[in-house]
Design brief:
By secondary structure, the chain is of the alpha/beta class. It has a single domain, classed as Thiamin diphosphate (ThDP)-binding fold, Pyr/PP domains (Rossmann fold), CATH 3.40.50. The protein is built from 7 helices and 8 strands, in the order E-H-E-H-E-E-H-E-H-E-H-E-H-E-H. The strands form 2 sheets. A 6-stranded parallel beta sheet has the order 3-2-4-5-7-6, sandwiched between helices. Strands 1-8 form a two-stranded antiparallel ribbon. Helix 1 (about 5-15) runs parallel beside helix 5. The longest helix has 14 residues, at about 110-125. It is globular and about 35 Å long.
Length: about 180
């Protein structure tokens, strides 16, 4: 089955309990992927389900403000921050995340590795009560990847199933847990 990287990302987010994508902006380059994944697109979170995985969408100009909004919910639920990148040229998350505290971070800059990177970030949600960061540009989001139909049904434990193991899970712990799955 072929699907765009953007559609795959938002379908995976829906599978792990995301119901709405929150943003400070009134528009996004990923609106089509969000809608095709049956997710709502809304402003700041107000009424949220106690088991909902939170997803925030940040543009390049409002990543810090979006992160500040997200940390209000730390410890009570998994949080994913998707960063709309202006270009696919970024290969290091350090440019954006060096002053922010994320459990794990990645920039999806190749469709060849996007599926495994997305799954790694979503697994990290279960091992640390810190947000995860995923950077993505429109150039990469629109490229297609082949995904086995069986794999599309994958889901990680959500906050409702007590999958979170602590505040300080190291990348080694996350990688060890992934190797065991």
């Amino acid at each position: 089955m072929s699907v765009t990287v953007g559609d795959f990302l938002f379908q995976r987010l829906a599978a792990v309990g995301v119901q709405r994508v929150h943003t400070r902006s009134s528009s996004t380059i990923f609106l089509g992927s969000i809608q095709r994944s049956n997710l709502d697109f809304s402003g700041q979170p107000s009424l949220i389900s106690p088991t909902e995985t939170l997803c925030f969408l940040a543009s390049s100009s409002d990543l810090l403000a979006c992160y500040s909004d997200a940390v209000r919910f730390l410890g009570s639920r998994p949080i994913v921050i998707i960063h709309e990148l202006d270009s696919a040229q970024f290969t290091s998350t350090t440019t954006y995340t060096s002053t922010l505290d994320f459990a794990a971070s990645t920039i999806l800059n190749s469709p060849m590795t996007a599926v495994s990177q997305i799954d790694r970030m979503l697994r990290a949600l279960t091992y640390a009560s810190k947000p995860v960061y995923i950077g993505l540009s429109l150039a990469v989001a629109g490229q297609t990847v082949s995904v086995p139909t069986l794999q599309m049904g994958w889901s990680a434990p959500t906050s409702g199933s007590s999958g979170m193991k602590g505040d300080n899970a190291s990348s080694e712990e996350i990688e060890a847990a992934e190797a065991g799955q």
